[in-house]
Amino acid sequence: AQTVTQSQPEMSVQEAETVTLSCTYDTSENNYYLFWYKQPPSRQMILVIRQEAYKQQNATENRFSVNFQKAAKSFSLKISDSQLGDTAMYFCAFMKRPDSWGKLQFGAGTQVVVTP
Amino acid sequence: SAVISQKPSRDICQRGTSLTIQCQVDSQVTMMFWYRQQPGQSLTLIATANQGSEATYESGFVIDKFPISRPNLTFSTLTVSNMSPEDSSIYLCSVGIEGARIEQYFGPGTRLTVT
Known about the structure:
Order of helices and strands of chain A: EEEEEEEEEEEE
CATH superfamily of chain A: Immunoglobulins
Distance between the termini of chain A: 41 Å
Structural class of chain B: mainly beta
CATH class of chain B: Mainly Beta
CATH superfamily of chain B: Immunoglobulins
Largest sheet of chain B: 7 strands, mixed
CATH architecture of chain B: Sandwich
Number of domains of chain B: 1
Strand content of chain A: over 45%
CATH topology of chain A: Immunoglobulin-like
CATH architecture of chain A: Sandwich
Distance between the termini of chain B: 37 Å
Oligomer: heterodimer
Number of strands of chain B: 11
Strand content of chain B: over 45%
Largest sheet of chain A: 6 strands, mixed
Number of helices of chain B: 0
Radius of gyration of chain B: 13 Å
Order of helices and strands of chain B: EEEEEEEEEEE
CATH class of chain A: Mainly Beta
CATH topology of chain B: Immunoglobulin-like
Helix content of chain B: under 10%
Radius of gyration of chain A: 14 Å
Number of domains of chain A: 1
């Protein structure tokens, strides 16, 4: 079974600064996807960024980027130029391919608070 | 992309009763998923709902407690049966779309409180 670990329960960052969230996972699989989701107080789960394990290039989406270290089984999220709207719970998630398609294993989450 | 709606958005129910949660998607999808998020916790997969077949449940979840229907490719229901306070959670519907990239979308969730 896969496990996803987020060791930072809460992170605080000032507006316009950068924050990095850590995520490690444990798997013997070689074919999988990794995701970061954001859950603001509205509780809507919003996909922030995804990474295919077979791609060496780190994924980026505007101010969000990941550092994917496959050998180390690490998948950190960097939020650049933080904005007040980035305040939310952030979840790292793992999906095994292909037989567990659509089934996400989530980490415990990291609460990000952006302060003015 | 996919737009997912859920009904009800929240409910307060008495112990021993049942609640059916509806999930509607604006496009046809093969697989739908139901997740539970207990207070202050992460999300846990309850089951996979396939159209035309029985739902597949994850370890710790059983059909008698969480019966699921999937009558067509855009709709599913999850029933929480014989509720107890421990069932107080947010229940989320999710769909996966596999195109050039995998997209996994979530509904807005149903906040259930059992008294």
